[in-house]
Amino acid sequence: MSANVIDLNSGRVLMAIDDRIVLPTASIGKILLLIEVSARLTSRDFSGFGILDKTPRDYVGDSGLWQHLQAPSLPVADLATLVAASSDNLATNVLLRQVGLSAVRSRTESLGLMRTALLDLVRDSRGPDDAPQLSVGSTAELSWLFGALARDEIVDPLTSQRVMGWLSLNSDLSMVASAFGLDPLSHRGTDHNTLLVNKTGTDAGVRAEAGALRGTTRAVSYAVSVHFNDDGLRARLRVLEAMRTVGLDLLEYVH
Questions:
Q1: What pLDDT shows up at residue 160?
Q2: For the residues of 34-70, what is the DSSP string, one character each?
Q3: pTM: predicted TM-score of the whole model, two decimal places
Q4: What is the pLDDT of residue 45?
Q5: Sheet harboring 2-7: ordered strands across?
Q6: Which pLDDT belongs to residue 141?
Q7: Does domain 2-254 have CATH number 3.40.47.10?
């Protein structure tokens, strides 16, 4: 388990548990794709209304809605919304085909992230020639990243705000955020003086979450990543309960 929590007002590190080790983070790495897409929209490299088609080589199962929809094409901005809201794998692959994994890597390096990366497109199965994980990261860097997004410091204010707007639609509150009592399908605004923006990552033996949480008196950015032997439901539930416990501590701190 790795974790990092930063007070957004003071910059003080409140928690650091093996926060510089690199662990698999599954779909959390899609944040890096969203940053690149948002930066390109800001610089008008392409239009948010530009239409992208899904092709057979983009198809992948698991998370997301587009694979279940009839629409063969969607605007760039809508695809980014799907990635943020439902971690849409098909939309991720279509966007990656458009912007290129190398561009995402260059953007990641330009942000000073050395232990966090989106390694590959999404695949139903990974062979010996594929990257072993979709993404990896350190919780120290992921917590910093969300703090910088919350302060409008990633690329420029418009780029940061657009990414945070997309991520505010995330519907997965099953991990750390399960402690916050928010509506998974509607929490873009403040609810009981609690405001959350987060992204999660889920894979076999991987549960990870990073986000920014604001309460009545304080605000934090946080990241928690767990790599475990997912050999049964009991083991998985223990991990989720541990992550929820972190969430309860965060909720108490910000209020």
A1: 98
A2: HHHHHHHHHTTSS-TT-EEE--GGG---SS-SGGGSS
A3: 0.97
A4: 83
A5: 13-17, 2-7, 219-227, 206-214, 195-203
A6: 98
A7: no
